[in-house]
Design a protein that fits this description.
This protein has 11 helices and 2 strands; from the N terminus they run αααααααααββαα. It has 262 residues and is mainly α. Keywords: Membrane, Transmembrane, Transmembrane helix.
Length: 262
């Protein structure tokens, strides 16, 4: 229709009308481009908001996970310190083992517990898989997210490290003694609102072992001279607790930043 009108006006040499027709074409194209750009921007903003909300949810879940790990590692550390205290009170390993009993076996075993699971970064991994610049157009936001995930990597790596003590104690302690601890002092399991496992150690427990089995287990532990490895285990738990605090602080700052974008 418009083409016909332009042709007619050109034939009639009605240049003013031609100009008006041309102006209509230009304005129409401009409006079409603007509408397309607006729609693309709206879709990009919606996609960015979607991923930022998911990442924020993951980080909030990770804060709860970190708090739960603080409890678990603190309990494990307490058992390690109790076992070290009992060993220090003994003096030389060659001395009689009568002062050491069921609680010592519990402490030695529980000090070897580990929680090497990874934190949740599924949403951020998905952003990178489809292209960060596609999912999150804002360069500043992308840089802040990248810096955050790089900054916590050392802490996360430390949290998943397992010291040799765990393997050592579970190799030298008689199976009957280990089973007695697992049967009566095993992890206490739960689930939080993010469907994460909440794992703690029981605050107190008793094990069913005969005096002979207790003496056998204590002797095996003392003969293995585990004090150095146990000391390293407790030291590593100190580092893990410090790493968790760093992780929580940086993650809280990142959550505050993402919430402030709304």
């Amino acid at each position: 229709m418009l083409l016909r009108s332009i042709t007619k006006h050109v034939t009639e040499q009605n240049w003013f009308a031609v100009f008006i027709d041309f102006l209509i074409v230009v304005v129409g194209v401009f409006i079409g481009i603007q509408v397309a750009n607006w729609n693309e921007t709206r879709q990009q903003q919606s996609l960015t908001a979607h991923y930022l909300q998911r990442i924020t949810d993951d980080l909030e879940a990770n804060i709860l996970d970190a708090e739960q790990r603080v409890v678990y590692f603190s309990q494990t550390r307490s058992h390690g310190l109790a076992a070290l205290s009992a060993l220090s009170a003994l003096g030389e390993p060659s001395e009689p083992s009568e002062p050491l009993g069921k609680q010592f076996i519990i402490d030695v075993y529980q000090a070897s517990q580990a929680l090497p699971r990874q934190f949740d970064n599924e949403s951020y991994a998905e952003v990178n898989s489809i292209g960060a610049q596609v999912a999150i157009a804002d360069v500043d936001i992308r840089m802040r997210l990248s810096t955050y995930f790089r900054s916590i990597q050392a802490s996360v790596n430390n949290l998943t490290t397992i010291m040799p003590y765990r393997e050592s104690i579970r190799s030298i302690m008689p199976y009957q003694a280990q089973k007695a601890v697992r049967d009566n002092c095993d992890d206490v399991m739960g689930v939080n609102q993010y469907f994460q496992h909440i794992i703690t150690l029981p605050t107190s427990c008793e094990i069913n072992l005969s005096r002979k089995d207790v003496d056998t287990a204590v002797k095996a532990i003392l003969d293995a001279a585990i004090q150095d490895e146990l000391t390293r285990q407790v030291s590593d738990l100190d580092t893990k607790l410090s790493s968790l605090q760093i992780f929580k602080d940086r993650t809280t700052l990142m959550i505050d930043y993402l919430r402030g974008l709304d």
